[in-house]
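One-letter codes give the sequence; each number marks local geometry. A record appears below:


***
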Amino acid sequence: MTRKLSAVLAVLMILALALTGCAKKEETKAPTTPAAPAQKTYTVGVSLSGLAHPFFVDMKNGMEAKAKTLGITLIVTDAQDNNGKQLSDIEDMISKKVDAIVVNPTDSAAVVSAVEKANKANIPVITVDRSANGGKVATHVASDNVAAGRMAAEYIIKKLDGKGKVVELQGIPGSSAARDRGKGFNDAIKAATGIQIVAAQPADFARAKGLTVMENIIQANPQIDAVFGHNDEMVLGAMQALKSKLKDKKVLLVGVDAIDDAVKAINAGDMAATVGQKPKLMGEIALDSALKVIKGEKVEAFVPVALDLIEKK
């Protein structure tokens, strides 16, 4: 019995070892799934001139929506219409080694040094709505601001039958938008010899300043037939001043941007028209262009965004 038991145990041990070996072989033969390669993510710095302006809030919203679809991380800063703050914000982006910088300059000349610093750090720069006077910019996304000023002037000339007294409220001196819209407007107005520009003063794209500047202009020029503002915000401020000072006199008010408050004022009959830009679309295109530049794809030096003249429906 002992010999038989020993023999049985020996056979069982051999079978156990054989089964263990098979299991190990099966384990080694089991297929392995390769790890998916990590998707490359990018960070883009965005420096906007002033988020107190609804136009640039819309632009920011467009960029943020686009960033989600592209998988891009945004660092958005508000320069608060301050050149020094914008330069500091961009320098901080450079130190963080962002993959690209999208900038809407407060001043086209003042921003040049920041653009050049980004160039030295090999960080591509994209400008949107307002251009930079120097440095290397990969692409500029904007409406044709000269055309915007010209469209406003042609509208005013037509509505006034080529004669009348007009006020021009100018944007921030030194910004490309103010320069270009002013050029388009004044070049076109010269063709109407019956139109007289009785005042042309900066109100810095701000509604509150548009109000105070317009109040001062009215005191010296109570006879006003039309007001053109380089943006809607200033025109909305001027509208308040005109309602207060000139009461029932109807003044033709024309702006640029087509912000929501301006469109409401047009439909209410308080403003005549605005040259509509598309800030959300600008933001989307600027971010899309930034990604293309980061990836080394070709982009045009200037990407235009169409304009529309918006009147009462």
